[in-house]
Design brief:
The protein is an alpha/beta fold. Helix content is 50%, strand content 13%. The structure holds zinc ion.
Length: 328
């Protein structure tokens, strides 16, 4: 009888268990994280400082017996550079990434029955005019993502777009309202970038992306003016990204923040990879999926074509590459 009383004690044990379960849940994400190089002292498997910003939110969900909600600002639309991607449409790179995220949610459910939900906060509409992606391509890409989620038959993944927030506006109107409500003045952002740290890392990474996307064979402008233009646009991408981030915090105050960018130890965002790649910044929408013998990796299109990979079509559209291993 006393034994029964102990095992059903409502005190202490649930709190301890919630913390253990929360550690276990977050531990499933750590092997896949994108860690910024500045985090060298942190161990690859993560440390207490890595988990600290996220633990309370996970514990709160566990104590309520609710699914743990993660939000991931990602999947904006394919890069406009054909040297990096196959087409404006979602392809095997997105399919593999969504299956990976669904698999992560399943693993969470195996240690915590209510499981996890990942909301993909597709931010293409936030940036389309600055990064040079056609609005129609953003719309089609968002529909592709929803179709891929339907095909997976998962309840763990969902999307959230700017279109969901300002449904009655034009696309320009949506961005104007986002920046009016959540935008940071350019001068204050520039000052923070000059100070270094995360804002500078983000600014440099985005400048690099914009330069890559703009460096096409049909380019007519000089390299110097291209660099100047990319730096100007990078500031606007960062401003938009921060505004979107602020809106998401308002819409999902209890969610754990994931990021596709490398993050330092202890960051309020947990950077994660969506597919195996050797490039810390490469994403499914800046690359192509390559089947290297039963496993998919992410590469830039021109690199796999140079390596002699074979293009595979699915439903009449380019899907991915197959790279045969050469016998050594
Ligand atoms: Zn750490």
């Amino acid at each position: 009888m006393y034994a029964d009383l102990f095992t059903t004690s409502p005190l202490a044990a649930p709190a301890r268990c919630s913390s253990l379960v929360a550690h276990e849940i977050l531990g499933l994400f750590l092997p896949h994280r994108r860690l910024a190089q500045e985090s060298a002292p942190c161990s690859p498997g993560g440390c207490a400082n890595c988990l600290a910003p996220h633990l309370r939110r996970v514990i709160d969900s566990v104590e309520r017996g609710a699914p743990v909600v993660f939000i991931l600002p990602a999947f904006p639309g394919k890069s406009p550079n054909p040297a990096k991607v196959l087409s404006p449409r979602a392809d095997m790179a997105e399919r593999q990434s969504l299956a990976f995220l669904d698999g992560l949610c399943r693993r969470v459910a195996s240690v915590y029955a209510p499981g996890a939900r990942i909301v993909l906060c597709s931010d293409g509409r936030v940036f389309s005019d600055v990064v040079g992606i056609d609005e129609c391509d953003i719309t089609t890409y968002q529909r592709d993502l929803s179709s891929l989620i339907d095909e997976l038959g998962t309840k763990s993944l969902s999307t959230f777009n700017l279109d969901d927030v300002f449904a009655d506006c034009t696309f320009d109107g949506m961005r104007t309202r986002l920046m009016e409500n959540h935008g940071e003045p350019l001068e204050s952002l520039k000052a923070r970038v000059r100070e270094g740290g995360e804002p500078q890392r983000m600014y440099c990474g985005i400048t690099r992306f914009l330069l890559e996307d703009a460096s096409r064979p049909d380019m007519t402008t000089s390299k110097t003016s291209l660099q100047k233009d990319c730096r100007r646009r990078a500031y606007e991408v960062v401003r938009r990204s921060k505004a979107w981030d602020s809106l998401l915090t308002e819409c999902f105050p209890d969610a754990v923040r994931l990021s596709i960018h490398p993050q330092v130890c202890g960051s309020r965002k947990l950077g994660i990879h969506l597919m195996e790649t050797t490039d810390g910044w490469l994403t499914p929408w800046h690359g192509v999926a390559v089947d290297v013998g039963g496993a998919f990796v992410l590469r830039k299109r021109q690199d796999v074509e140079r390596a002699g990979a074979t293009l595979v079509f699915s439903n009449g559209r380019p899907s991915h590459y197959v790279l045969e291993r050469t016998a050594s």
